[in-house]
Amino acid sequence: MFKKSLSVFLCALIFFSQAAYGAGLRTALGIINVDNIGIGRTYSLANDNNTPFVLKNTSDVALGIRIEVIKPEERDLLEGYEPIPDTDWITIEESEFTIPANDKVSTDVVIEIPYDEEHSGKAYQAYIWSHTTTGSVIFGLKSKLLITIAE
After folding, report:
1. Where are the domains of the chain?
2. Burial status of residue 149 (CB atoms within 10 A of its CB: 0-12, 13-18, 19 or more)
3. pLDDT tens digits, residue range 88-146?
4. Could you tell me which CATH number the domain at 24-149 has?
5. DSSP per residue over 106-129, as a string?
């Protein structure tokens, strides 16, 4: 019985590994630096920096995608950065969509810093987590968002 269960498990593992291997999601924005945002200001990657957030589907099947903003854990912070106080500071213009096979989509990342002197001169880190919502294997990638606030 144990050998049969182990065989089924190994076959399932190989099957799902091959499915993930054949799929792919890519972005050129692995690290996003946004420097010297003033408190009370709004910053758009697409409009202010002419750099929309582009995701490419490198697989041969359409992928359902969701993009979420998440706080990093303390162990994942770069030196000199704090976790972003509130992920609601960051809005993804379009956060759920389907990317056709071998195609790409773009969206905007908008950062809105509240008007509060306590944030002046601080450096914050967040993740933009792009992941699949369809298929038998969920996979994704995290882009590191590094924000410095002007003094």
Report:
1. 24-149
2. buried
3. 999 999 999 999 999 999 999 999 999 999 999 999 999 999 999 987 778 899 999 99
4. 2.60.40.10
5. EE-EEEE--S-GGGTT-EEEEEEE
